[in-house]
Amino acid sequence: MSRRASAGPSASASDAPGLDPVIHAAARLRVVASLASLPGEDRITFPRLQDLLGMTAGNLSTHLRKLEDAGYVEVTKSHQGRTPATHLRLTPAGRTAFEDYRATLRTLLG
Known about the structure:
single chain; alpha+beta
């Protein structure tokens, strides 16, 4: 008979009630935490966030799409001259979800 003493690498958000599974993935948690560090309505460019997190463009895009679908991140595409620019910001819902995530995590950690 096997008994798990602690949550190992296979632990998921479902193992810890209340942790938002959209944010709980390590890469998305890093994205949300980075965006939450920006004051208010401030935005960051996609290349700057990519550089800051050391993620590939494809990987970052995939995680941003999931966060955008959840309503946590706003992606704004524009042009600066002829150069396309993508700006990112945490939405009010995303900021609230991150604060709730942090509060739940603090509670779980005691």
